[in-house]
Amino acid sequence: MQVKCTLCDKVEHLKDDSFTAKRLRNRRLNLYMCAECHKRIEERTKQRHSTGKFHLYKDKYKHDDFI
Predict the structure, then answer these.
(1) Which residues pair with 23 in a beta bridge?
(2) What does pTM read for this prediction?
(3) Three-state SS for 2?
(4) Residue 21 near residue 15, CB atoms below 8 Å
C-alpha cells in the first residue's frame, strides 16, 4: 500500500497486512504522517512543554446526576 505524508508529501510503502495500513483503509479520515515528521513534531512539543508556557486546556464537563 502506498501512502503519502500529509505534511511533507513524501510517498512511502506500507505492508498490506500491517496494522497501520489496516487502520488507514478502515478509517478514511485518519491521515498518515511519516516517521520523520512525527519525530519532529514530538521534539518541538517537548520543547514547548519545557518552557512552561504550554497549557493543555481540558473541556469543561459538567457531571449530570440524572444520566
Answers:
(1) none
(2) 0.65
(3) strand
(4) yes
Confidence of residue 28 (pLDDT cuts 50, 70, 90): confident
Q: How many residues does the chain have?
A: 67
Nearest Cα residue to 8 out of 30, 27, 35:
35
pLDDT digits 0-9 by tens, 39-61: 999 999 899 889 888 887 877 77
**Residue 56, strand partner residues:** none
The residue whose grid cell reads 498518515 is 32
Output b/e per residue, 23-32; b: 16+ Cβ within 10 A: ebeeeeeeeb
Q: How far is CA 18 from its chain centroid?
A: 17
Question: Exposed/middle/buried for 42, CB within 10 Å: 0-12, 13-18, 19+?
Answer: exposed
